[in-house]
Amino acid sequence: MVSLKFSIILLSLFSLAIITQAQDLTYLKYKCPKNYAYYMPNSTYEANLNLILSSLSSNATRNNINGFYNVSAGQAPDVVYGMFLCRGDVSNSVCRNCVTFGTKDVLQRCPMVKAAVILYDECELRYSNRNFFSTVDQNFTLFMMQSPNNVTVEPDRFNQLVATTLNNISTRAASAASGAKKFAVQQANYTGDQKLYSLVQCTPDLSTSDCSRCLEGAISKLGDCCNRRQGGRVIFASCNFRYELYEFYNATAEVEAVPAPPPATPSPPPASGSKTSGKGKERTILKTVLGTSIPIVVLVFLTASCIIYFRRIRRKETDEEKNHRSFFQELRKSRGSTLAEGNKAELIDPMLSDSCNAEEFSRYMHIGLLCVQEDASDRPTMSSVVLMLKSHNSFLPQPERPAFVGRFMDNPEATASNFSVNEMTLSDVDPR
């Protein structure tokens, strides 16, 4: 019995450590290409992949890798290519934690898939059976997100300021020495009391021309994602940019170009094939990231409390106020009007309107829609939800279609009968 209790305590502490580490990071998205090749358990490809992930994790602890590392292992058809890129302003410890956690997280999100990429605010991790080193893929947009709020002061001038600033620092980042950190930030004056903060970055294995071309492609997406928005972000496989009206990067991020490291001494090939790597150097920037699992407990408690509260309110509604349509049908019909127009406050229960902050309700509704998106890969993790609830400056991407929404027909005759004879509800079931 004592041994069992001790094991349970150890398991609980281990789970708590994992949750805490995950909360240190801001998860963005992962991609497992659909209809992509899969590998078999205990196969040569799996062995090479494990070797790659282990190498990425171990090299993330080094102080001279410039926040970037790529490595390959094995021989065709079982060769695996892998890399990580940490955001240019994060410290070595944050980079290490992000990569170490990502090597485990990506296998859980993309089991048995030969290619995957996972994005956090702090780092990007990618592997594939195809060589993607030193190449630019402008057709593969990994992530695109914008602020939910528009600028109100001279929006056209703001758009021009964003484009000009991003183009200027793109030139500076691309011109960094070969193998050096291709990263640049800049602040520019927008109004008397507001500044624009911008960041661009390329993987250090790109040439000057390729980095410029990659960032040009990303910046060309400004009109699609970020027109007049207070903040925006586009992430390609080999480069990315972000801008905000608040300082989202480390204030000491503006670093001098460092010389490229000397060529690595070739290492003996492993049993499953050859192994090559590319690396750089990163200056240590002190940054403390505190993780805690308390918000998880609080979130669960608040969720349960809200469910009980709204159930009690439901019981008080009169028969005339009841609506026979399901929540998803109503949500689908209102997407083009109430939600799309930003009038989420109209959805507030009249009994709560006096005590409910419309702006907070709109944000919570937005977060709720993100959590029920049809594609599970688009849904935020628990740590991301906690961050969204805690910070009003965090990004809120545009939610995609919720699961099962849009699969009902707008046929009033099909839903004309509200109740059966004995007042039991009737359901019109459509095949999936």
Overview of the molecule:
- With 432 residues, the protein is of the alpha+beta class.
- The chain folds into 2 domains: 19-291, Killer Toxin P4, Chain A (2-Layer Sandwich), CATH 3.30.430.20; 294-405, no CATH class.
- Helix content is 35%, strand content 16%.
- The chain has helices at 2-23, 44-59, 92-109, 155-174, 208-219, 222-225, 294-315, 327-339, 358-371, 382-390; strands spanning 27-31, 68-74, 80-86, 116-120, 123-128, 141-146, 182-189, 195-202, 232-236, 239-244, 274-279.
- The strands form 2 sheets. It has a 6-stranded antiparallel beta sheet. Strands 6-9-10-8-7 form a 5-stranded antiparallel beta sheet, with helices on one face.
- Strand 2 (68-74) and strand 3 (80-86) form a beta hairpin.
Topology:
Elements: H1 2-23, E1 27-31, H2 44-59, E2 68-74, E3 80-86, H3 92-109, E4 116-120, E5 123-128, E6 141-146, H4 155-174, E7 182-189, E8 195-202, H5 208-219, H6 222-225, E9 232-236, E10 239-244, E11 274-279, H7 294-315, H8 327-339, H9 358-371, H10 382-390
Antiparallel strand pairs: 1-4, 2-3, 2-11, 3-5, 4-5, 6-9, 7-8, 8-10, 9-10
